[in-house]
Amino acid sequence: MDVQEPSMATAPLKQAGLFAQCSFAIIRNADLSNEDAEVTAKELRLHDGAVIIDNYPDEALDIAGLTHVISPTYDFPDYNICSDAMIPVVKPTWVQHSLARSKLLNPRQYSPDPRLFLSDITACVSALPEGDADAIAGGVLAMGGLFSAKLTGLTTHIIAVDYDSESCVMARNRNMQVKIVLPHWVDDCLKLGRKIDEHPYTLPSPEIFNPPLDKAPGAKRKTLVEGATHYDPSNKMPSPGAPRKLERVFKKKTVMLANDLGISQYLRGILDGMITTSGGKLTDSVAKANMYICKYREGHDYKVASKSGKDVGNLAWLYYLITFDQWTSPTRRLLHYPITKEGIAGFSGLKISLSNYSGEARTYLENLITAAGAECTKTLKQDNTHLITAHGLSEKCAAAKDWCIPIVNHLWIEESYAKWKMQSVTEGRYVHFPARTNLSDIVGSTQLDRSILEQNFFQDSDIEMADAPVSGPMRQVNQNATKGARGRQRSSDAGMNDAEKFRTPAPSKFAAMGKENVTPSTNNSRKSKDVASARLHDLTGDMLLYEKERKRVGGVVYGGRRKNDEERVQPNRKRSVSEASEDEITEDSEAKRTKRSNPAPQIHLMISGYNKWVGHPKVEDNDKKRLRGYGILTTVDAKKATHLAAPHIVRTQKFVTALAYAPMVLSTTFIDSCLDADELLDPKDFLLDDKENEKKLGFKLKVSRERAKTNHNQLLKGISIYCAESIHGGFDTFKTIVDANGGQCMLWRNRKNTIVPSTRAGSEDNTDSEDNVVFLLSDKKKENQSLWERFKEMAHNSRKTPRIISPDWLLESAMSQELRDPGPYDNESGSGQRA
């Protein structure tokens, strides 16, 4: 009998759903309602996804078998466990977008971690040079976003300079919900390390190209410091609207209130009642506590709680939990974590003022300054040490510039506090103020670093841990997690160094330009350290690309290789010393370009007035390399110059400034002769001889050098010198000369209530002594004469004698290295210049 084989068409194989190899935990919180969580869980199950946990935090989070965690925020108790186990945490939109594309999208773009501040954008460029595109791609990818070579349905931002370029026109024709912004927006975000508002950069009419405002722009966003503006609310209760019976935040939690809080028994009783009625309880044993509330980062209990991974916060954090009935990490906001009694090293004695901040943002910064150990002043005076501002426009900013007070944005104080070390006020991100942007929009975006807290406050050697299990540095341990899960966590840590433990989480892989990679399925038998190594390897290329492009001259703006760009800085082009600034050419950069075989420099040569190289950069470059081979290193730093070369005595900034450091002054024929002889010649044979100018200016170079050696850069010590704003040669030129000679130079802008800053002690009885004279460098132009009266008033109010003199007095005093009699240079009684 023939047996008929069944037809393949009658038994079709069911195709596996998109999420068939994935297992999920859904985090429910204030940003993801129960209804939305149930809809997400239904979608996942419909496409064969396994939803292991969908009732967290009521249900314990067991990471065994998890491949993804879905949460609109990173702020949930077990986030650090997920991060350490390399389990990607994604926003709920990842599910919808993956279904729309029928593929698992890159989780990195959907990360809720605020450190990946560009994680919610997909960028493409339109009509930009290749170099600019590479720089933008590197920055966006490194900060969590995606980059596509072409416009796609997932594109959120088009980076362009031409509103009528192809991609921009296509997006408008399709009515796509994308933002078309200038490259400057990406550049400013990367400089600050924060995502700022795109509006001022949006085409077709970007505000940053409009004429400057006469005042700082207003803040547009709600700050992130609500409920975290003070580190010590003391006996103040939470807001009246706070719920008395809380649904979830204290459920099954044990709380310990430390003795250093200084709260009354009455308030302690109220807190006990609220915690108990909400499903929690108080304890006096740190070993039994889930939450440890204290004021200071000190003491045995603090160290035990911190080392064992418990939630350690202050009273402000506890009040936040009560007010919002929503868990948040105590390290998420700087003032939710205990403070110290001493503050940060170096902050004691600082006087810091604020400008352009208001409301909660201002209160928060005032208290942060105090917590750091400094003093916050309401007004700005000349004895202030720093000004923190959200924008560069304000009366305080103008006054701070006049008084040479460092001006920084709030990231300086936030990151100094987070890193527990005073940050440099010259760091680029702290002195960057984007046009048309008020930086108070991003106040509170800095969080504490677990590794830095451990390093500074609870090292292993500081504490005996016999009564508390060690579960890793500051790890938020889920007390209900299974032993198997804990075992895997420890195994994972064993294969990771410190950098891997505390780095920014980097789940899955980057998407290549124009492509998106599918998240690989998780094999439960694969060891976590293999996962960490593979994913870290995936990140390396993009991080290197970002670092390379970030260092490009011009950043991501004008960072390309357009040959016809007039403002483009050519990489091999060196300007002559006469046209280059001190910041553009340094001794160190010259030294780095020299060959290793070059001898150690015997001469550090500063050059002024040498015309051979002007307009001939190739000749200049070749000559400098040859000179370096002879042991002559050219420099523009007067402090390092051992020799000064000029064709004759010149009154340039370089020449006059260098004389204060007593260099040997040579003729520029020394340079030509060494090049002609192809060797280092004796510089003593080329001493500058310019008797004509020596006679004209009334000094001798040889004598001037001897005086400079005796003066030790203190010729003007204790002398205050102001410059009129429109002074010929510019304020910066005269300030450089005054600084080199130990004086104090300030810009005079005719402001009321200005006081001469103190210098060295002077005798009030001898008002004609140089200690009690304050100078104003000014010419006799009518616009400058209008400044004289208020200057004299200011000097008299400061018990000083005003002298309004020609700039020639300063130049010739510095060149001769002796203080000239100001009489012949007096603009009021004399001719205003030396006869």
Q: If you consult CATH, what is the topology of the domain at 225-337 and 448-475?
A: Rossmann fold
CATH architecture of the domain at 225-337 and 448-475: 3-Layer(aba) Sandwich
Strand content: 5-15%
Q: How would you name the CATH homologous superfamily of the domain at 225-337 and 448-475?
A: BRCT domain
What's the arrangement of strands in the largest beta sheet?
Answer: 2-1-3-4
N- and C-termini, Cα separation? 133 Å
The profile of the biggest β sheet is: 4 strands, parallel
Which CATH class of the domain at 225-337 and 448-475? Alpha Beta
Tally of separate helices: 26
Mean pLDDT: 80
Helix/strand/pairing category: alpha/beta
Outline type: globular
* Contiguous uncertain segments of 5+ residues: 464-529, 559-596, 760-768
- Mind telling me the C-alpha Rg? 33 Å
Number of strands: 24
Overall helicity: 25-40%
Organism: Exophiala bonariae
Pfam families: PTCB-BRCT, RTT107_BRCT_5
Region (Disordered): 473-532, 557-602, 816-835
Domain BRCT: 14-112, 140-203, 245-335, 347-422, 629-688
